[in-house]
Amino acid sequence: MLDVTVIEDAAAAAVSLDPMRARLLAELAAGPASATMLAGRVGLPRQKVNYHLKALERHGLVELAGERRKGNVTERLMRATAASYVISPLALAAVQPDPGRFRDQLSARWLLAVAARLVRDVGALITGATKARKGLATYALDGEVRFGSAADRAAFVEELTRGVGALIAKYHDEHADSGRDHRIVVALHPTVKPAASVTEGGSVTSGAGAPPDGAAPVTTGPASIEEAS
């Protein structure tokens, strides 16, 4: 089982987004199970579970893990092909985000378009590397920083931009015949707060997705650094 896989096909994406099929994927990510076992967990007849499993299997989201005899019946034990799934923008190819349409480093929507491209491109690289049975060299940097003020945040962005720009200028070699182009993605945005919870008095303690202190996202170009070779 893979840690994560990218769904690029629109039909497979549609299958995975069905609430019951998503529930079955979650159950099978935890371990192999038969339609009979799953029926008791999700509250559906075995025949209906089988129908959903066949749809998931057709699109490569689940696979046969083994078989076992139960009385006069041979049960198929299924498992998820990955622990988690990400839907690529390729599944909505006609309307996928295009960061090239505009470039605003202080726009949260531009950051989202860049992140969507990252999912699309890395997903395609994983698919190609898997088919070719080759490794894929990547790198990602993920961390958090707490700024004391908006001015500190702006200064950090400026220094980060200069630093990354200097590294690019130092190592970029457009004349290297055997070289390979790489995309660099660096992003900065407020940390998302935990989902809202209600206390005994009925008050909301926190809000999902609310930026801390009302801060607006600040981005500098492309949220991890990805390297593919």
Order of helices and strands: EHHHHEEEHH
Number of helices: 6
What is the terminal separation in angstroms? 24 Å
- Anisotropy-based shape: elongated
Low-confidence stretches: 203-229
* Number of DSSP E strands: 4
Helicity level, as a percent range?
25-40%
Main sheet properties: 2 strands, parallel
Mean pLDDT: 86
Strand order of the largest sheet: 1-4
Classify the secondary structure makeup into a structural class: alpha+beta
Instruction: Give the C-alpha Rg.
Output: 23 Å
Strand content: 5-15%
Kindly summarize this structure in a few lines:
By secondary structure, this protein is α+β, with helices and mostly antiparallel strands. It is built from 6 helices and 4 strands. The chain has helices at about 10-15, 20-30, 35-40, 45-60, 110-130, 150-170, and strands at about 5, 60-70, 75-80, 85.
Any overview of this molecule?
By secondary structure, this protein is of the alpha+beta class. Helices cover 38% and strands 10% of the residues. The chain is built from six helices and four strands; from the N terminus they run E-H-H-H-H-E-E-E-H-H. The chain has helices spanning 10-17, 19-30, 35-42, 46-58, 108-132, 150-171, and strands at residues 5-7, 62-70, 73-80, 85-87. The strands form two sheets. It has a two-stranded parallel ribbon with strand order 1-4. Strands 2-3 form a two-stranded antiparallel ribbon. The two termini are 24 Å apart.
